[in-house]
Specification:
By secondary structure, the chain is an alpha/beta fold. About 40% of the residues lie in helices and about 10% in strands. Bound molecules: zinc ion. The site of zinc ion (ZN) has 7 residues, from strand 2 and helix 10.
Length: about 350
């Protein structure tokens, strides 16, 4: 998951992975010798192969390997856990939850499947269910660390709720004066792309993501918010950069995946002067994340703040499988921010 710090009078915003699996997860538990679901040679081989395929982002194949092994050894904890994680990667949240419930039945004391299930509930925007799981962990006897994580999860969910009614038609809260945005007369806006030389192999992916992101927000605005790509950064009002990051393995906060800085010329302007989108990428990351991160950051670049609903692209955390899709709330929000009403006709 990503986490993005909110952009209030929008100075900057961060997009960071939370990776609940890693943050809330425990190290792989080692099956006791007396346990009926002891890790067998079948499981070992399947897990190694699935891990290899997962690393290559071949999730379908990894799932097939685990399904085959589970057919021979149903109820094997490590297989189930790995299987559930892969289902999450594909956005098959309900099936993942069912799998994590099976894990809980095999090893009731282990909270890792509970945290993963909570993560899946969050991705489905089922905040109440995620809360229930976190409370369950708090009430059970268990490790202090697990309770801390459950507490953190509850605070996180509370922060989403604080972002307003998650079922409202849009998430542009409060006074529009509090938002920084471009003037409608500034459009078509000039946009430039820059890719760090070390990432030149991702130039094509990023280029396509940036163009597609602007096109989607433009379509959502009814054709009002149009853009022109320019080759030179100094001619652009929005610059989109793809930068390399080094992953910090010790970090418990997850990865920062993007950041957008908004500039109103130090308050001298009554509207946005310039936006700078930075998408961070490391070579271990799945390039399929880039389009969704870019779509989110371009939303900030245009002046949008965060949504507390996990289904919206402007939700501060990512959700696998990183779909770069705008919801009805996203579309309504950009229209509201720019005062575009349904009776207006798009310019050509
Ligand atoms: Zn954000």
């Amino acid at each position: 998951m990503w986490l993005c710090d909110g952009a209030k009078k929008a100075v900057s915003s961060l997009l960071v992975t939370l990776a609940l699996g890693a943050v809330f997860g425990c190290p792989q538990a080692i099956a006791g010798a007396s346990e009926p679901t002891e890790k067998s040679a079948i499981a070992e081989v399947a897990l190694t192969e699935a891990k290899r395929l997962r690393h290559l982002h071949h999730y379908d194949q990894a799932i097939a390997v685990l399904e085959k092994a589970l057919g021979r050894q149903p109820g094997q904890y490590d297989l189930l856990l790995a299987y559930g994680r892969l289902l999450m990667k594909q956005g098959r949240y309900q099936k993942a939850i069912d799998t994590f419930l099976q894990c809980q039945m095999v090893r009731p004391k282990d909270n890792e499947p509970r945290f993963l299930a909570a993560d899946a509930y969050l991705n489905m925007a089922r905040l109440k269910d995620a809360e229930l799981v976190a409370r369950q962990v708090l009430q059970r006897s268990g490790e202090v660390r697990d309770k801390r994580m459950a507490g953190a999860l509850l605070r996180q969910i509370a922060s989403y709720r604080a972002m307003g009614d998650l079922t409202a038609p849009h998430y542009v809260r409060g006074d529009l004066q509090d938002y920084m945005r471009f003037k409608r007369s500034d459009f078509p806006l000039k946009v430039a792309i820059w890719v760090e030389p070390a990432l030149r192999q991702y130039r094509g992916v990023f280029d396509k993501s940036v163009r597609s992101s602007f096109q989607r927000w433009c379509d959502a605005s009814g054709g009002y918010l149009r853009f022109d790509m320019v080759p030179d950064q100094k001619d652009a009002r929005i610059v989109c950069k793809l930068l390399r990051t080094v992953r910090n393995p010790d970090s418990t906060d997850g990865r920062k995946l993007g950041e957008t800085k908004l500039d109103d010329n130090e308050g001298l302007e009554d509207s946005l002067k310039f936006s700078r989108v930075e998408v961070f990428f490391n070579l271990e990351q799945d390039p399929r994340e880039i389009p969704a991160i870019t779509l989110h950051e371009v939303g900030h670049a245009l002046g949008l703040d965060h949504s507390g609903n996990p289904k919206d692209i402007m939700f501060p955390h990512s959700r696998e499988p990183y779909a770069d899709v705008l919801t009805a709330r996203d579309k309504n929000s950009i229209r509201r921010l720019y005062g575009i009403t349904n009776d207006m006709t798009a310019r050509q």
